[in-house]
Every structure is written in structure tokens, then in C-alpha cells.
Amino acid sequence: MSTDLVLSPGLPVEIGRIEKELGKLWEESGDSKTRASLINLAIYTESAEAVAKNTDLIAQIASEHACRAILIYANRTAPERGAKAWINAHCHAAGKREICSEQITFQLDGDSPSALTNVVFAHLDSDLPLCLWWQAPFPDHVDSRLWSWIDRLIFDSNMWAEPTKQFARVRQFANTRTVLCDLNWTRLLSLRQGLAQFFDNACALPCLCEIDRVEITHAPGSRISALLLLGWLASQLDWKLDSVLGRHSFRASDQREVAFELIEKPGAIISECRLTAGPAKFCLERDKGQEFFHARMEGGPFEAKSQLLPAHRGRITDTLLVELGRGGKHPLYAKALDLIEPLIP
Amino acid sequence: MPTSSATPDNPLREGLLSRSVPEPCSLVIFGATGDLNHRKLIPALYNLAADGNLPPSISVVGFARREKTDEQFRTELETAARKFSRQKINDELWSNFASSIFYHRSEFNDLSGYESLARRLDELDAQRGTRGNRLFYLSVGPDQFPIILENLRKSGLNKANDGSWARVIVEKPFGTDLPSAIELNSTVREVFNEADTYRIDHYLGKETAQNIMVLRFANAIFEQLWNARYVHHVQITASEPLGVGGRAGYYDKSGAMRDMVQNHLLQLLTLTAMEPPTDLSADAIRDEKVKVLRSLRRISGADVAKYTVRAQYTAGSVNGEDVLGYLQEENMPAGSQTETYVALEVNVDNWRWAGVPFFIRVGKRLPKGATEIALHFKSVPPVLFHQTGQTIDDNVLVIRIQPDEGVSLRMSAKLPGSSLRIEPVKMDFHYGTSFGKATPEAYERLLLDAMAGDATLFARRDEVEEAWKFVDAIRAAWDSGEGGPLATYSAGTWGPDEADALVNRSGATWRRL
């Protein structure tokens, strides 16, 4: 339920004096603090409770990825329109100095898309990319003036209540300059790297053309993650979705059937991914809380191997840091999404 | 910089920023009980494992003279890794990684030790699937290179089976002069092809050294100004507060010229002065670097006294502590004439750099440690603000290699107020400020590249030999006395007065770091 902020996310300021007050903040700190910024990181939420969590998250992000953070809490159900602002700084020690990132927090009362556009436009650190993390359902209609400014649109499809509807809305950005950054896709990075690594082995590479079964074990509520991983495999290996009497499988270009099974089990978001190619088996397995996958390959025209590979750490901060640190576009995401769209619940 | 791929046709690699993992291999480290292995190589390998960049099958075989078991060796290395690794050691991962480490005891000159090594590597190939791929790392003094290489050849370890590879990594110094470098290169070449020879200069593995090319060729604004028309002079500095410590024996034979200038400093100079390569392949880049080395105006005979300064530190104070002079250091030969400081004026005689002096300085027991490249731009025409009696500092672009890696640009700005006063201000980019996470150590990148067969960041034979030609001419004059006397400077100062005079005559002064 939306409400006023209980905990203050910094020093309250008049909106028209934000830049001046930020300036004062730095003047008062003398030479001991250095302001740094690589990006504008705007976060939009409609949950009052999320403001404190986001402030904490920004503090952690800023220690590795200096930014100007603009946190917007849209209190859309408030009876009257209005806006409040707070400023603060997140500093961490770097030698004798402290490196600081600024955070400006807004509470926007009432439903006013133009106010949202204005606060973002008015408080950007110029010439730096704008990354907007949208933590709410996407609206039916978007303000094109705002959205055309976004360099990277961040969202987390694992959090969506209505994924089909939300993916459809996200697709309106597909042909724009905005890079779509689904944190659910980012989480799969270590899995994708681990699976790719099996087939860096030249002896195992031919098995890619013989895969006949995929099993992915996912946590309850994380079916979209499993589907995205499946979609990635299918798009990279040129499989097409095949549906017979409501039963889905993939069909490879050589007409081979590739069966798949998504298994729900408490644990890591994706706790296991197993590929079978005739007698050859490739498996990434992870216990909850473990920082590593156990990677095993066996039964094929290669030496059986097992190895520990780094796994995604699971914290949202880590996911966001990976996303911000990677840059670039995600062309494979759209391809993967295309293939699994009929399977999205 | 390009990366090679073990299986470029792997469609699952598309879009992944991480490179393909190298093929399985055995890495044999000669001198495995030494400092480099403990402080750098093993921590680098562990970090590669933690980042998922090592091949699933790898064997790390330490080759050294001391008697010890695999388990003792692993325990020693674990202690070192816990101390020196940039990432915290994860017990499970270390245990997994340590199971790939083995120890092989032998004298370097004992052929039977190599024959037994060959048998052991064959066994490891069979047990661990390392497929006969071998990477030999010579982490030993250069005097040991010939005997190790010879025994590798005699035992057949230099020859790979079909579909496999055998490579060698050679640590600097690559010889002590041109004849010894040619001899060493020939010795290496008798045993390994040039394409399989990786001469490591860890400066090239540093992120900031790699960033020089990105800064120059990925930013339109800099490359336009990167020439004699706009640049007045260039300063390349590598200073360190440390003395020779326990390396007196090595250092006194080497000196700053051989230890630093011939390799690290000239590498930085080539990256700064080179033309854009045709592509990012190893040879395209190294071709351009060699052209720079060939364009260096040779300094010889009487010119050496004019264009070079060599000096030795005397007792002084560093970081608030009194320190001994070079000659008083432990195990130092009496009356040593070895230089601990070198300053050079180098001219690159090509179209781009004609008339632009490159000043190089390197020294021990200087006030602080820093390595950087500074481009000092020419002055603006003295026709506008100069009329008001203002002194306008020149623009300086500084690339800081270490520590505090980054780039800064000095420019002039008006001081606020009703009168016109101009002061220099600095725009400063710090890697550490902008990118908070720890960057990989140079050895991580270089080991991975050598396993993957990417030689871009390694020195090629002709680079090494061209650098020695340049250095040898200077050393010859120093040794004959024609190059002027050895100057002295107090420890904790920025070098001798003669070095100041060297730059002053070009209208420059050394940067205050």
C-alpha cells in the first residue's frame, strides 16, 4: 500500500534548491571528499517500503559504480498532487580521500506522469548515460519524451505478476535506441557462461548438434528465468518451438526433437541445468547459498570432467552491478524471448 | 585487445563478454619455489579459477631443486595465495584448484629430471585430460635459461604431438645486451618457434598500459593532437622509493638501464608513439611498436653525455626513515658504478614526432612510487592574455600507469572575480573512483593470453633486439667513460641536478609527482 515515507532518505530540500544544496554538501566537506559519477541511475518505485531498501542498494552500488542516483517514489494513490525531495551522499574510503555519489530522492504524490518526466530531466548529471530501473508494472502509455532519453531500461521480469502483459509492453522499446536490461537475463549470465564453457572443448562441440533433452530446475516463482535460459539455448542452437496436442518441445534444424522439462524445486533460482546429447551429459548444479556451480560433463567423445565454476551470487546488488559493468546491447535477449513467448504463463 | 578462442564456432559464446577458456594444458613453472611464483603466479592462477577462466583440465607443475612433496608444495602455495590473492580464498575452490598442483624436484641441469618430468606430464595428460598441451614458464634467472631450454629440447618436451602445442614463457631480462639477447633468442629459437615464445613484460599486462591504445585510438579528440605540431615534449617516469633490498647481486650487474629502461620504459614509449595498427592482431600491433624502436635516434659516443644522465643514490631519508646509500647496501661491491637512476632525452625520428623530445626518467629511492606518461602540449600564441602579464601553463595530458591509475588533463581557467587571473586546473579521471572493483592483476591476463595463444601483450624478438641496440650504444659510452661521470643524488630526492639540466635546455622541467 502506498503511503508517506516513514524514514527520511536524507536531508529534506526544496525541489528548486536541490543543486544548490548538493553544492553546499560538497563545499562543507572541504577537500576530503570527491564527487564521482559514471552514470545517472534513476530508480522508479511505487512502494514506500522500497525506498529504504533502494537507498541501501544505491549505497552499495555507488561503492563500485559511482553514479548520480535519482530515486523516485511515486505515491500514485495520494489524494493530492505534490512533490518532496531529499538529498544525501554515499561515500566510501579510497586511500586518504572519500569518494562520494549523490542521491536525490523524490516523493511524487498523485498520478502525474509529467512530474516524473520533469524530475528526471531536471536532475540529470549532464552527458552521462541514463539508466532507469523501473520497479513497477509498466504503464499502458509512456511519455515518449522521457523514454526516448533512456539509455538503459532496467527491469526484473522475475518480479512481474503478469509477465505476458509486461513483456508486450517492454517490446515497444525493442526498436528504439534504449537497451533493454532484464535483470532476470543478467542473472543467467554465469549459467550461460558455464554452459558455453562445456563446448569450448573441441571434442564436446559436436554434441551441441545432438542435444535431445534439456532439464532445468528452478525455484518456485522463477519459471520465467528457466524459460529465458531455455529460449537462449533454443535461439543459439536454431531450435524451433513445436507444439503437438498441447505438448511443447523444440525441433532442431535436422528435425531432431529436443524435449525439455522445467522442474520446480526450492533452492537457487536455477539450481540445475542438464543437457543430454545421446550418451553425453552436461550438467551445471548448484546448492542454495553456494557461490559455485559444480560443472560435470561425461559420457561423450571427450574426457569426463568436473569443475567448479563461479555462480551468480543472487543478491540484487550483485545482479545490478553485473548489468552496469557489462554495458553493450543484449541482442540475444530479444531472440530468446521470441522463442519462449508462447510458454510464458 | 583481441582474444583468441579455443573453439570459435561455439554458438553459445555469442554475446558473452568473457572469452573462451583456453584449451586444457599443463603449466610447468621452473623456479616454482621462488618469490614470483608465490606472490604473483599462483594467486593469478587462483583468481583465474575463481573467475571461471581456467580450462576444466589444467595441471600446474612446479619444477625446482628443493625436496618436497606435492602436499607440502600445495600448503606453501595456499599460504601465499591467502596473503597475495586479490580475491579472498574460498576453501572449496582452493581445494579444487590445489588438486591440480604438483611438484617435481630436479636440478635444472639434470637431464634425467626432465625425462621424468616428461613421463609425469604424460601421466597427467592421461589422468587429467590435458591433451599434451604444455606451457613452460621460466621463472628463473637468465643464466638458467640455456640449460633449461637445452634440457627441454633433449627430453623432447619442446615438441608437441599433432593437435597439441608447447609454448614457453620467458621472464625478463631478455639478455643483458644485444649479443646476449640474440644468443638467448637463438637458444630459445632452437627449442621453440617464435610463435610459441612469450616474452613477458608485466607492464604490458596492466590495465592502464592496455588503455593507452584505447585512449589514443578510441577518442577522436586526442589522436588529432598526438603529434609534433601540438606536443612540446613527452615525459615518461617510473619512480620508486625502494632501494635494491635483497637484490643487490642481481641489481648491481643490471642497473636501472637494463632493469627498467630497456623493457618497461621503452614499451611505454612505443605504445605512446606508435602509429595506429592496421588491426588488433598481435603482429599488427607489434609491427608498429618495432617501427618506433627503429625510429629512435641512436645516442652514442659524445652525445651520450649530452642526452643521458646516470646517477646513484647516496644516504638520505625516504618516508621519514633514514636509508643507506647504494654503496652501503648489504652485499654491494665496493666502488660499484651501477646506476640506480637514469634520465634520457630520446628523439623519435619519424614524421609524427620529429623535434619532440621524449624525456625518460627512472630511479630508485625517489620520494614516491609512480609510473606515468605525460604529454606536454605547446604553449598558446603569446598574443592575448600574455599582454596582461599572465603566465599561462601549458596543457598536460597525464596517463597514470600506477598507482592511482587514471588520466588527467591540465588546462587553464579564469579565477572567479572581477580581475582577469588565469590559473591551471585539472580534470582528473581515476579508475579507482569510477570503477570501484579491483582490476585483474597483470599476470592473470598474461597467463591466460599465453594459454590461449595470444601474443599481443608479449614482446617479440625484434622488439627486444631493437631495444637492446638503443640501450647498448648508451651503455658502451658509459662504460668507456665517454658518457660522462656517474652522478649522485640523495635518497628521497627527485634525482641529480644534471637531470634537471637535461630537460631545462628544451624549455621543460620535470613534472612534480
Task: Explain this structure.
The complex is a heterodimer of chains A (345) and B (513). Chain A is α/β, with parallel strands linked by helices and 345 residues long. Chain A contains ten helices and 17 strands. In chain A, the strands form two sheets. In chain A, strands 1, 2, 3, 4, 5, 6, 7, 8 and 9 form a nine-stranded mixed β-sheet that branches. In chain A, strands 11-12-13-10-14-15-16-17 form an eight-stranded mixed β-sheet, covered by helices on one side. Chain A is elongated, with a radius of gyration of 23 Å. The model of chain A has no long low-confidence stretch (mean pLDDT 88). With 513 residues, chain B is α/β, with parallel strands linked by helices. Chain B is 36% helix and 21% strand. Chain B contains 15 helices and 18 strands. Chain B has helices at 35-50, 70-84, 91-98, 111-128, 145-154, 178-191, 207-217, 220-223, 248-273, 282-295, 303-307, 431-434, 442-452, 461-480, 497-504, and strands spanning 25-30, 58-64, 101-105, 134-138, 166-171, 197-200, 231-239, 308-314, 316-318, 321-323, 341-347, 357-363, 370-377, 396-402, 406-414, 422-430, 458-459, 487-490. Mean pLDDT of chain B is 89; it is low at 1-7. The chains are: A alpha/beta (345), B alpha/beta (513). Chains A and B meet through helix 7, strand 16, strand 17 and helix 9 of A and helix 3 and helix 12 of B.
Mean pLDDT rating of chain A: 88
Strand content of chain B: 15-25%
Helix/strand-derived category of chain A reads alpha/beta
Please provide the count of β strands of chain A.
17
H-E string of chain A? EHEEHEEEHEHEHEHHEHEEEEEEEHH
Helix share of residues of chain B?
25-40%
SSE order and pairing:
The complex is a heterodimer of chains A (345) and B (513).
Chain A: E1 11-13, H1 18-28, E2 33-35, E3 39-45, H2 49-64, E4 67-75, E5 82-94, E6 97-109, H3 113-122, E7 130-134, H4 144-147, E8 152-155, H5 163-170, E9 179-182, H6 183-186, H7 189-198, E10 213-218, H8 223-236, E11 240-244, E12 247-251, E13 257-264, E14 270-277, E15 280-285, E16 292-298, E17 305-310, H9 316-326, H10 331-340
Parallel strand pairs in A: 2-6, 3-4, 3-7, 4-6, 7-8, 8-9, 10-13
Antiparallel strand pairs in A: 1-5, 5-6, 10-14, 11-12, 12-13, 14-15, 15-16, 16-17
Helix pairs in contact in A: 2-9, 8-10
Chain B: E1 25-30, H1 35-50, E2 58-64, H2 70-84, H3 91-98, E3 101-105, H4 111-128, E4 134-138, H5 145-154, E5 166-171, H6 178-191, E6 197-200, H7 207-217, H8 220-223, E7 231-239, H9 248-273, H10 282-295, H11 303-307, E8 308-314, E9 316-318, E10 321-323, E11 341-347, E12 357-363, E13 370-377, E14 396-402, E15 406-414, E16 422-430, H12 431-434, H13 442-452, E17 458-459, H14 461-480, E18 487-490, H15 497-504
Parallel strand pairs in B: 1-2, 1-4, 2-3, 4-5, 5-6, 7-12, 8-18
Antiparallel strand pairs in B: 6-17, 7-13, 8-11, 9-10, 11-12, 13-14, 14-15, 15-16
